[in-house]
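Note to self: user wants both folds in one dump. Writing first protein now.
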Amino acid sequence: MLEFLMAGGWVMWPILILSLLAMAIILERFWTLRATSVLPPGLGWEVCQWAAKGKLDPAHVEALRDNSALGALLAATLDVRHWPRHQIKERVEDVGRHLSHRMERFLNTLGTIAAVSPLLGLLGTVFGMIRMFMSMLEFGVGDPNRLAGGIGEALVSTAAGLSVAIPALIFYRYFRGRVAEYVVEMEKQAIALLDTLEHASPVVPTGTARSETSDDPLGQAQG
């Protein structure tokens, strides 16, 4: 391994560092962007049941906010449930963009690694070829086998750069696509919650006078 690094020249060290950084980002994103962590199964349906029954306790909403990314979006929807529908949708889209930005953390770094690694490899190859031709200028062509070996060593850095860039680019595109799918599904469940809130009927306790009922059943249930 050490001989391989030495053959590629000094650019092999930054390529090695970028490969370790890319691996760390990929593992971290795989853990953070688990479906069960971002979109807990059944959470949207459960919150819709809360809304339909008027069980919107503030403590439940705060717990929902800390539950997951989907929970944060649904909690933001519940926070403005008394607003007009178009304003609630704008709020959902705004919060969705913030959550999308949070889920895309480190992805720009991964994309930069995918772009820079092959350039570093090419730079190492260029420097290697320059050294080889300068040596030929000073000592002559000499042994053809040695010349072929020098060219092979110069190409090591390019191969290393591509070996880092290709998987980094693949995972960069994969995670971007996964985040986009999550955002669409989260907004879909938020709209389903909004529809439930609009169609929720007020729950009037038995024996309560009509004049004492609130015009806002959800606010009454929350209180």
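First done. Writing the second protein, which came from a different request thread.
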Amino acid sequence: MERIDHWINGRQTPGLSGRTSPVFNPATGATTHEVTLASLEEVDAAVAAAGAAFPVWRATSLAKRAEIFFRIQGLVDTHRKDIAAIVTSQHGKVLSDAEGEVARGLENIEFACGIPHLLKGGYTEQAATGVDVYSIRQPLGVVAGITPFNFPAMVPMWMFANAIACGNTFVLKPSEKDPSTAMYLAELMQEAGLPDGVFNVVQGDKIAVDRILEHPDVQAVSFVGSTPIAHYVYDTGTRNGKRVQALGGAKNHMVVLPDADIDMAADAAVSAAYGSAGERCMAVSVVVAVGDAADPLVDAINTRLGKITIGDGTNPDAEMGPLITREHRDKVATYLDAGREAGATIVADGREHPLYRGSEGFFLGVSLIDDVTTDMSVYTDEIFGPVLSMMRVATYEEAVSLVNDNPYGNGAAIYTRDGGAARRFVFDAQAGMVGVNVPIPVPVAYYSFGGWKASLFGDSHMYGPEGIHFFTRGKVITERWPDPATSHVDLGFPQTR
């Protein structure tokens, strides 16, 4: 069976720990590869390679870095279908969705191509008599990214593009569930001319994560995953003196007001809830119907569910693929009985889909649960699967309270024709990303991605301008070139005059 190893100092590096983990094709249930799980020594080797490469890469001109990133952009663009095929083979999402993931990641590489402009500092002439002051931002050194299974191409690009363009060197620990995408990206970056050691991939599990968080030479860690692990990563990393941004889970609400276009809202809810089998941190998992919108909205959503084609992600007719593992699929399915037992109404049960029991793949059909309340596990838990909850409230104020009282604050959306109501929701909603008649408000690359509350630990959002800020630190220089005859001893605190 083919084994997936590490990428250290510009070449594939066989694992030496003797520990491996299976990699599945979720559509068939077959084990297709095994991935090496790193030892402490292998993580240290990757960090050492990045550390050795840092001085030369940091000294590389911005023009040269931009040139390399333009070549990376061209290669990723040329091979976007190849990357998508790898994503589908190990994650299971349909090819069109995988290609969309690559496209959104590519936006961040394109943003990084503008690094000469993005790192411009400020300059003040004559701040005091004969004194000029200017500010610059400099790279941190060796930085790391720990990425989730659900976006094995896009999320790494969110991290390494800005980090490397800013002059840092990078160690990536991808998910062990779908590790091949990272290796392919490493090969493309080498082909583009990125020097050896600037980008490294360490395959692994908690042992690798903990070593990254504790390693004295790793200056910053970027993470995306569940909220409990995000909290652990933030706590452990900062305790070890690192800069950390740790993005956690979500329970994204979509509020539908009575004046909304019900068909448009239903299309949006179905697209946002069931795309990628619900395995998106920005998936809509709760629709909050206000007043008279409830019954027609439930009917409109339910009408659309039977038309969704579920199957192998390589099938061009499939709109939704399997979940990532059998264990995760089975856990998601338990929420249906839990919801019914708590008093909710199961409008559509994904276990009735023929692929749920009639396939070795990890399939679960789309599910819709109505009459959900805040004390039910289908509401309190991040299910991360194709299960959409419907909640009914009487007023806008009740809907906003649901959004704001929830411990998560990743994204929220509102559907309405009323501009005043939409503006008020943007003002009121306690979430890092808000959509107005847009169900998945993931920002474009020249803004930044990040949630509030338990959806983000740390004060920096990801990619875009805040990504540049996270992967650099400021330095302010105050300089004078005086005539020696004017020099004298002054024990007072410096003043500008």
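Dump finished. Worth passing along: The chain has two domains: 3-248+455-477, 252-436.
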